Amino acid sequence: MPAPKPLLSSPLAAADASTLRAFERRLRSAKKSDKTVQSYLEAARLLAGWLGGRVALEEVTPADIEDFMIFLLGAHAASTAAVRFKSLQQLYGWLTAEQWIETDPMARLRPPKPTEKPVRVLSDDELKALIAACAGKQFADRRDEAIVRMFVDTGMRVSEMCGIRLDDLDMKADQVTVRGKGDRVRILPFGTKTGTALERYLRLRARHKLAGLAWLWRAVGGAR
Description:
Number of strands: 3
Structural class: mainly alpha
Strand content: 5-15%
Largest sheet: 3 strands, antiparallel
Radius of gyration: 23 Å
CATH topology of the largest domain: DNA polymerase, domain 1
Shape: elongated
Strand order of the largest sheet: 1-2-3
Order of helices and strands: HHHHHHHEEEH
Distance between the termini: 49 Å
Helix content: 40-55%
CATH class of the largest domain: Mainly Alpha
C-alpha cells in the first residue's frame, strides 16, 4: 500500500483534469444538482491527489481503490469513506459506459459499511423549551416558531424546509408539499398548532417588503 500523502498537494495532471472536465459536462447535462456535482468531482480529485501522479485516474486498478478506501478509513468516519466510494462509482461507471476504459475497477468492490449511530431525539421538555425560545410577536419570533413546529410535525429535511414556496402551503387541508433529493415530491400533513403558527407568520409576512417573492421564509430585512 502506498504511504499516505497529503491530498491534493499538487495540481491535477493534465490527463486527470481533462477527464474531470468531461465528467462534469456529463453531470451538468444530466441536470445533477450543484451539490451532487461537487461531491462526485471532489471524490475524484481526492483520489487523484492521493495517487500523486503515480497513475492517472483512467489507469486505476481495484487495488488502488481499496488502498484509497483504507487510507480514508484511517483519517475519516466510515460514512465519509462510503460517500466517496459511491461518488467514485459514478465516475468509473461513466468512464466504462463511454468506453474510455475497458473494465470498471469498482465493479466487484463493496463500499465501506458505516456504523450506524442512533439519532438523539429531543425530549418533550427540550421541545417545549425550543418552542418557548421563539415566544414573541415580532416577525422573527413568528417565523421561527412556525419553522420549529413544522419540523416537529413533519420530520422534513432542512433542504426541504428551505425550498418551500408560498404556493406549496395548503392551509385548508393543513399540509405542505416539499421537494427532496432528485426532485422527489412529498405531501406532509401538519397539526393545528403548526397551522396556527403559520397563520400568525403569514399575516406578518404579507406586510414584508419582499412579500411578493415566491419563497415562504423571509429574513427580517432580506430575501431569505
